Amino acid sequence: MVDTTVVQVMVPDLVRVAGGNLDHALWAVNGFVLTYAALLITAGRLGGLRGPKVLLLAGLVVFALASLACGLSSSSAQLIAARLAQGVGGALIVPQSLTIIATVFPKERRGMALGVISATMALAAIIGPVGGGLVVNTWGWRWAFLVNVPICVVALVLTLLWVPDAPSGPRQALDWPGVALATAGLVAITYSLIGRSEFGSVFAVAGVLLLVLFVWWERRYKAPLMPTALFRRRSFSLAGWLACTQFLVLSGLMLVVSLHVRGPLGGSAIDTALVFLPMAVTAGLVSPLAGAITDRAGGRLVIIAGLLAMGVGVAGFAVLAAESASLALLALPLGVVGCGVGLVMAPASVEAVSELPPSLVPAASGVLNTGRQVAGLLGVAITGALLQTGTPGGAPTGTPAGVALGLLAGIALVAAVSGLLLRTRPAQPEVLPVTSVTS
């Protein structure tokens, strides 16, 4: 998660590596996102077929080697290739977390476990720009990548020692036509959202058509990459929609905030990170609590409260920004947004898998993470398009930015209402802490 944000503070350095070519520098930023988003579904399914621990270990090895290659790159072509490989490693790692937790922890303790993971994800949004800025200023941009290597080595050792071997699914061939269609479709859609190409709309249409063909194939293949039975479970479809909505709103808001701080307020990248700090801290503090409540009483009301908080926070930021409020005041509604993020992230994951048999959890994890990633890119694309219709810089004091923030707040509120369709689960009996998770 840190590596999706850390590159934002090193764009000038990457431009120099690329010989002044901004497009090459941006592909060093976005290459990670491209392969990461495109391979999440496949990686989730592979975790079910080969075992999530095996995929987690493989992902850590790939990520470490790719990070080393990033830090040692001497040209933009080498750096872009290494960032693409980093995205592959990230895609192998992320879906396995939900699968391992769903396997190791009983249902009544999953919420707390996922809440802890959600807290680390929230903090990563701040650690990336702030920590990356400090590392780049102190040791140079290469060390922002090289620091991943010892971290991955430690993670490999801890995984081997402490993560139990979750059972793999029945031995069967991977759905290679499904892999090809899903990957091509997601690559096309992701490229249309992050690329700076005049053919973006063509890629978007092609991506949608490929994904429609993918769904058609999956309904007919006996061992599909993405079992369509997932979407016949109301809890998975609804919770997935709510989780994706959260990422769409959050990504769009972060773009507006960044432009406002760096533009009208004349702040630095560090100022931007500090404005986001209350949002990350509140999300990190609330996430475990939200997970614990979900364990006890279900996530329906928790998710609704979180989406309402996000909508109110976005609207509050719009009002204060229009009044040219200070950085300290702007941080207050962002703290409210952070509470909403913490209330939604872990409970949505818990509800998404609550009614699924263990055999469907790996595929569900890949689909859920893919949906969140694409929704985040869509939020940036929609917000950016609205901002470009107004004044340069897209200051939130202008009408287009106000429209964008109003749209984001409205989407959060509509999602909160749709959360009423989630089933209310009965409260779980209190359980004693588990002292060991070994199988």
From TrEMBL:
Domain of life: Bacteria
InterPro entries: MFS, MFS_dom, MFS_trans_sf
GO cellular-component term (any): plasma membrane
A Pfam family annotated for this UniProt entry: MFS_1
Alphabetized PROSITE patterns for the sequence: MFS (PS50850)
Membrane topology: Multi-pass membrane protein
Keyword match Lipid metabolism: no
Record-annotated membrane-spanning stretches: 24-42, 54-74, 80-105, 112-135, 141-162, 174-194, 200-217, 238-261, 273-294, 301-322, 328-353, 403-422
Stretches assigned to the Major facilitator superfamily (MFS) profile domain: 1-427
Name of this chain's protein: EmrB/QacA subfamily drug resistance transporter
Source species: Nonomuraea muscovyensis
